[in-house]
Amino acid sequence: MWVWLARRLGQVVPTLLILSFLIFGLQQLMPGDPALILAGEERGDPQVLAQIRAELRLDRPLHEQYLHWLGDVLRGDFGFSWRIRMPVAELILQKLPVTAQLATMAFLIGALIGVPAGILSAVRRDRPADWLANAVALFGISTPNFWLGIMLILLVSVELGWLPPSGYVPPTEDFRQSVATTIMPAFVLGTNVAGVLMRHTRAAMLTALAQDYVRTARAKGLPERVVVWKHALRNALIPVVTLGTIEFGRLLAGAVLTEQIFTIPGFGKLVVDAVFNRDYPVVQGVVLTTALIFVLLSLVADLLYMAINPRLRHA
């Protein structure tokens, strides 16, 4: 297992190098000149533009810009934001906990609804419970997040006054208020996750329940709950774990519309503002951090596979 883990960690390095090259290269294809945006009212002065390009190394060949940027990244230096004038690493450390809290709450809501609903739907196939679970999943998948968010604000905040309509409070300042400000956007994001997880859990459980080892377990007289939870579910969870890590990574990458509606200063809003302002260092830092998160989540998924199914440890 340790050899496998070392091999997987060794694959992370070339993967991130390739991703860094793609991130830097695609960034250069964006239209517009950052120097013109940063110059402001003095954009018509060639000397000012030349000075800005020299300070930001925009006048150097692309391969020199890439190598200099990569060297800084390897030292943990993502550069300075051209617009906000503060270190990109500091910006990421400010915004990532906000999105991490929102993503964790949303994923927990989605998993606690979607996985049990998928199991129930598979066990009660073609019965009212199955129809109800499929209807809930279809609602979660097909309902736009921005519409559901607006409706919740109108109902829960404006009409009932139960929760604040927008804003964010860090849990270190006031944990109860922090949960109050993030529970609605987390529910909005979690409904989609719940629908996706429910459909995949149902399909995986139906496949597992049709296997020979399940029929053998039933023929031995084992209780149905043991057959479902111990024999069928453990094998059905493999594709669900894969999907779950992808969904969690997607949430960590930032939910732009939901963060805009609820005025949450997270990753999504940060990267959108950076793209519109041609703030290359911020875009590169955020995208590279997101790519690292997905790579690490892939490793976590592999470890969970072996925890769920011990036979994979010797594969």
From TrEMBL:
Domain of life: Bacteria
Entry annotated with the keyword Transport: yes
InterPro entries cross-referenced by the UniProt entry: BPD_transp_1_N (IPR045621), MetI-like (IPR000515), MetI-like_sf (IPR035906)
Broad class of the protein's primary localization: membrane
TM region(s), chain numbering: 12-30, 102-123, 135-158, 178-198, 286-308
Keyword entries, A-Z: Cell membrane, Membrane, Transmembrane, Transmembrane helix, Transport
Localisation: Cell membrane
Record bears the keyword Transmembrane helix: yes
Domain ABC transmembrane type-1: start-end pairs: 96-305
Membrane topology: Multi-pass membrane protein
PANTHER family, alphabetized: DIPEPTIDE TRANSPORT SYSTEM PERMEASE PROTEIN DPPB-RELATED (PTHR43163:SF6)
Family affiliation: Belongs to the binding-protein-dependent transport system permease family.
Protein name as annotated: ABC transporter permease
Native organism taxonomy: Bacteria, Pseudomonadati, Pseudomonadota, Alphaproteobacteria, Acetobacterales
